[in-house]
Structures are given as structure tokens and as C-alpha cells.
Design brief:
Elements lengths: L7 H4 L15 H10 L2 H4 L19 H22 L11 H10 L8 H11 L8 H12 L12 H7 L22 H7 L13 H4 L4 H24 L5 H10 L4 H15 L3 H13 L2 E5 L13 E5 L1 H19 L2 H26 L14 H9 L3 H14 L2 H12 L11
Antiparallel strand pairs: 1-2
Helix pairs in contact: 2-5, 4-5, 4-11, 5-8, 5-11, 6-16, 8-11, 11-14, 11-15, 12-13, 13-15, 16-18, 16-19, 17-18
Length: 424
């Protein structure tokens, strides 16, 4: 079906894309399929969403979360295509592109969830930092098919669709903010069609809020998924009870609408209908959006920047309350904070061992020992600078699953763990 919503600007890649003879898929369908079949995507099945993976079979992981985001994102896309007067049968948002953006949005996240991201950012402070969204872009453009450097040549539309943040790390005063790596400036320029940001898009939050339509849809799908599903996992794990939610609401400064959201959650827990209520709520949040014609400074180049997604303020407020409940009663619980402490220690010591061995080769620690796969080790040794070597080590650690990181740490630090017959 012909779709004039997208043009050559949207389909362009960093390199010319060559279709195989007989190829029947669109570029966006190829993107989606290639992401699904990568090891980076499969590794999400053993990366933390809320609770460390492997504790129970039914809790969400980064993989199941990404699948849920993709489903919600496609539903938002279909809802807009069917209800918006601004779209038509030959001028519509591509659901395959939306699905690709949603499936890819978390592939750059490290083991142990946001704790792992924070720890790696601190460890990489002198070498460009670490940020999950920037790492996703790095995988897509540089390393998804090879730890030593081969990306998937994504289209401009896909890169823009996952690019939530457009501020470079060195442009920020706060190193803990969201950013892109310094060497991703050329990719950012390509995504923007080499157009400079107007003055109103200052580095930091103003610039990071500038997103394509597909990125806005992906972000609301992500918010919808984790605001609702983190509640469900918290209930199943026993962290959220009706009494605890009610006490939290009484102790918090909530307006009338927010208080009702908390009471509704407490009732659902008491009635043992959390999953059913959440399923209904997903549909309501999907239908809380509309499309408006509001071109940005890139609107003349792409329809992706001609339209804006508008979310009903009541739906946004509801999602924020649910996220607050999860943060206050689940993520900040002593049980999870203790696991976060352990995760930080594992990543910190892993990084230090590899840094001593490879970033500064003259270090006495581990001198001459082969601690990494041969191909990766040779690439690190041949790297031109400490910053490049640190980035390759960071790539290796951030790609680890929770379980692989723990096992690697034990092999290096636990005298009673590991043998010559270990394969992974």
C-alpha cells in the first residue's frame, strides 16, 4: 500500500541500503525483523525490569516489557490512523516502524536495570559517560551485529524514533542527565538533516523534549506499559497491598484526582482484580491520545516532525501517580535497595578488573592475562586511546545479562566458584 507520509529523507541511512533481489518487505519491516533476530534483543530476557531476572518466572523482564511496549505502540498507531482526520488510507503512521522503535527502545540498557545504568555512567565519567538511550543508538549504528563494530544501518526514521534525548554529554553541566555520547554528534546531525537547533531548544530538557512523532508514540507506550505493569508486578511480589497503598495515599500530598487513582488501585488489590483492571486501563490510555498539526523546525523535511502527539492531561496525571506508587513502595524498599547495592558493586568491580587490564596496559593488575574473548581483546588493544578502550569494555559489560554478570564476577572474585569446564 502506497504511503505518502514518508519520503526519501525518512528512509535514508548512514550508508546506502542495498535491497536483496526479490525482497518483498519495506525498509521498516526489515528493521523490525532484524532487531527481533539479534542477540541484543534476546539478552533482554535476562535483564532486570523491576525485579532481578530469574527470581520468579512470571515477573516482567526487559524482553517482555519491550514486547508489551510494542503492542501498545502499534495499538496507538492504529487508533490514530483510524480516528485522526489528519491521516488517510494513503497517508498514515507506519505500524511496522512504530513496532521497530518500541522493540529496540531498551536494547542498550545494561544488566540490573537503572541501577546498572547509573553505575556505568559513574564508571565512564572520564570517558564520555554511559546512557541507556545513547547505548541503544550505538548498538543500532555501530555494534548490534558485532562486538567489534558493525551496526544495522538503520534508517533516519528508526534512529529518530528511538532518539529520546538529543543533548551531547559535554553540553551538560549535570553528568547524571540524559545525553548522547560525544562521538554520536555526526549521527545526531544526520538525523536532523544537518539543521541546527533553534535557540529555544537549549541543551538539556528543552532539547531532549524535541522528538519525532514515532518517538512520542513509543515514549507514551513505554510510560503506559511500565506505569501499569510495574504495579502488577509489585502486587504479585507482595510489595503492594491495599493497606500499604492507602497509607501511602494518606501520607502523600495528592490532589483529588490522584487520590482517587490510589483508591482505585487499592480496591483492585483488595478485590484481586489487578490484572483485569490493568488490561482495561491499557485500552483507556491508548485512546487518550490525539494528533495535531504542529510543525517543528524540521517539519519541511518530514511529516514525522509536522505532527505532535497530544495526551489527555488526566491520563498523564494518572500514569504519574502509578509511577510514584511503584517508586515509593517498590523501588525504594529496603529489599530492592539492597539488591541495587549488590548490583552496583558487581559492575564496579568487573569494570575495575577490566580497566586495570586493558585501559592502562601498564597496570600490574592482571598484566598479560586474557580476560576477554580474543576478537574483542584484540580490538581493545588496537584502540587508539584510553577513551576508546574504556568504551569497548563498557560495551561488553552493558551487553551482559544479569546472570552472566553475576557468573563473571564470581569467576573473577569468588575462590569457590568456577572451573576450567565453565562454558559461559
Amino acid at each position: 500500500m502506497k504511503n505518502s507520509f514518508y519520503n526519501a529523507f525518512d528512509f535514508a541511512g548512514l550508508e546506502e541500503y542495498k535491497f536483496r533481489e526479490g525482497e518483498f518487505r519495506t525498509p521498516f519491516q526489515i528493521h523490525r525483523d532484524r532487531i527481533i533476530h539479534t542477540s541484543a534483543f534476546r539478552r533482554l530476557q535476562n535483564k532486570t525490569q523491576v525485579f532481578n531476572s530469574g527470581h520468579y518466572d512470571f515477573y516482567r523482564t526487559r524482553l517482555t516489557h519491550s514486547i508489551e511496549v510494542a503492542q501498545i505502540g502499534k495499538s496507538i498507531c492504529q487508533y490514530l490512523n483510524q480516528t485522526s482526520d489528519l491521516l488517510s488510507d494513503d497517508f498514515f503512521i507506519d505500524p511496522d516502524l512504530i513496532e521497530a522503535c518500541c522493540l529496540a527502545h531498551d536494547i542498550g540498557h545494561p544488566p540490573f536495570g537503572h541501577t546498572g545504568e547509573t553505575e556505568l555512567n559513574a564508571l565512564m565519567a572520564e570517558h564520555g559517560g554511559f546512557e541507556g538511550n545513547a547505548q541503544t543508538l550505538r548498538l543500532l549504528t555501530r555494534t548490534i551485529f558485532s562486538a567489534t563494530g558493525r551496526g544495522m544501518n538503520p534508517s533516519r526514521a528508526l534512529m529518530d524514533g528511538v532518539l529520546k534525548y538529543k543533548t551531547l554529554q559535554h553540553e551538560l553541566e549535570n553528568p547524571n542527565s540524559h545525553f548522547l555520547y560525544p562521538d554520536q554528534e555526526t549521527i545526531l546531525n544526520f538525523v536532523l538533516g544537518n539543521c541546527a537547533f533553534p535557540e529555544e531548544y537549549a541543551p538539556g530538557k528543552p532539547r531532549n523534549s524535541f522528538r519525532s512523532l514515532e518517538c512520542q508514540i513509543m515514549d507514551w507506550a513505554d510510560d503506559t506499559a511500565y506505569s501499569l505493569n510495574d504495579i502488577a508486578d509489585g502486587v504479585n511480589a507482595g510489595f503492594l497491598t491495599s493497606d500499604r497503598v492507602e497509607r501511602w495515599a494518606e501520607a502523600s500530598s495528592l490532589d483529588k484526582q490522584s487520590s482517587e487513582v490510589a483508591r482505585e488501585i487499592a480496591r483492585a488489590i483488595r478485590d484481586q482484580r489487578v490484572e483485569a483492571r490493568i488490561g482495561k486501563k491499557v485500552g483507556q490510555l491508548i485512546a487518550s491520545v490525539q494528533l495535531i498539526d504542529a510543525p517543528s523546525f524540521l517539519g519541511h523535511l518530514s511529516n514525522r516532525h509536522r505532527f505532535q502527539l497530544v495526551i489527555d492531561p488526566a491520563a498523564e496525571a494518572e500514569a504519574k501517580v502509578m509511577k510514584r506508587i511503584s517508586v515509593d513502595l517498590v523501588f525504594r524498599s529496603p529489599q530492592l535497595q539492597q539488591l541495587d547495592f549488590k548490583a552496583s558493586r558487581i559492575l564496579r568491580e568487573l569494570f575495575q578488573v577490566l580497566a586495570d587490564r586493558y585501559i592502562e596496559p601498564d597496570s600490574r593488575s592482571g598484566r598479560g592475562l586474557r580476560l576477554l574473548p580474543e576478537a574483542l581483546e584484540n580490538t581493545i588493544i588496537e584502540a587508539a586511546s584510553p577513551a576508546e578502550r574504556a568504551r569497548l569494555i563498557c560495551d561488553h559489560i552493558s551487553a551482559m545479562t544479569d546472570g552472566f554478570a553475576v557468573r563473571t564476577y564470581k569467576r573473577l572474585a569468588d575462590p569457590d566458584f568456577g572451573s576450567i569446564v565453565d562454558l559461559v
